[in-house]
TrEMBL record:
Catalysed reactions listed for this entry: DNA(n) + a 2'-deoxyribonucleoside 5'-triphosphate = DNA(n+1) + diphosphate
GO biological process annotation, one example: DNA-templated DNA replication
Family: Belongs to the DnaX/STICHEL family.
Record protein name field: DNA-directed DNA polymerase
Biological source species: marine metagenome
Amino acid sequence: MDFQVSARKWRPQKFSELIGQEHIVRTLRNAIELNKISHAYLFSGTRGVGKTTTARILAKAINCAKGPIAEPCDECDFCREIKQGNSVDVREIDGASNNGVDDVRELNETIQYAASSSRYKVYIIDEVHMLTPQAFNALLKTLEEPPQRVVFMFATTVLSKIPETILSRCQCFELKPLSHKQIVKQLEVICNQEGIKVGGLSLEKIAKTGAGSMRDAQSLLDQVIAYCGNKIENDSVEEVLGVVARTTLEKLVEHLIKRDSVKLIETVQTIITDGKDLNFLCRDLAEYLRSLMIVKLSEKPEALLDLEAGDLQVLKEQSKGFHADELQQMFSVLCRTESEMKRSSLAQMIFEMSILRLADVRPFHRIDDMIREINSLEEDNTPKKKVLTDTSINLVKDEPNNLESVELSTNRCLDSDSDWQRIKQEICKRKPVFKHYLTQCKVMAFNESKLDLGFSDLITQDQVKNSDNLQLLRDVAKFICNHEINVTLTLIDKPKISATSSSSTLTNNKKAIKPNRDKSEAEIIQDALDVFGGLVIK
Ligand SMILES: [Zn+2]
């Protein structure tokens, strides 16, 4: 017997054999039973999901000797002719190569003649989106006034390229992409019937490489069978398909955990030298990261992942090396890489750079934590704290004509510090909304008789100046200190104060923190990195 490729040999011949398109089958069967056969059908969907197959089964169903019937017999002359592709009344036209207006005109002429023996004359036009606009126009005329007993069946992978005028005259069906499981199941059926033994997850690998297309998966199966004979092994599948072995993926991820860029690049080089397909590697690595994520999040990952026990154990160990958000970031990098690689002639370099980028991914900082950290830094940098490192100090603004001094003694300061904390707590207790204002002010002076609060912006100062608020401040200060305190509010020039206080601190205490103004750019960047994490790109 002649060799027949699996995709043809195992092509569904009846509606009941169609996989994954139950929603369409049901509608078509109902229409046939009610004798409501349309003049034009359009089947859309990705490659290899069964668009022309569905069209052919429909052609059989309406032309079957026992029909029109919800399920063609597949045995009568009409069904057999259609199956073999030599029915004179069912014509299959490739839209990609017959896309001109002349082709459609010729078609329009033949349409006028009645079917020779069949019930319906059927035109199946594949890749119909390839027709030129003029050809579509010519076709439209026929669709507007279709001759009796002529049925058009269009198939397309790009529904968006079909003019609205055509769509509105067709019954449109969108075929679903086939799931991984559906494809694996069909491959199993084929292997069983052909007496081929399959090891490990070979069929899963083939289905995955087929990327949702049954036809592609079946062609790949043919290739693997041609290479392996009647016994399919995992290793041979990897070799034929050009996919990377699981152990290699594990190794790559191990280097990622250690952030070992050199080893990562070396491994990628070896993979390339072995002749593996980088597109597959990118996809497989993304899938591996997804598995790590599932293992990390789920209590029963085995229910969600199709894995062998040993692989699951490795995943569990490796998932401890990543934060969940790191895995998410890495996954997005790989998704972008995959689409960039498809569009570029520099695929290898793009992949290498992305792998290095993966090694630099760091966990995100929670915004709450960052705000807390910044606040604590701000508190550390308030002039008061620095002043406390000295025994006694005069804060002097460095403008010669506007000398202003704030006297603070160490002891008083320590007391006033704790008193101020108590005042703040008491105010927040009495009027919680005040807390916001208090975080925005600085104690300029605080002694037996007065409390001077500095505000860096006028709006906040005005809010506090509001008589109720000011009175509250005075009441609480009196309550805490047990005597009247004169509370005053000052508008301060924030940068000047901090710079002056810092430099004055510096003159008195060489170990004091270096003022911001004198920090080198590198130090400021380092400070930012300490707070936010991240990576210097430029
Ligand atoms: Zn039949």
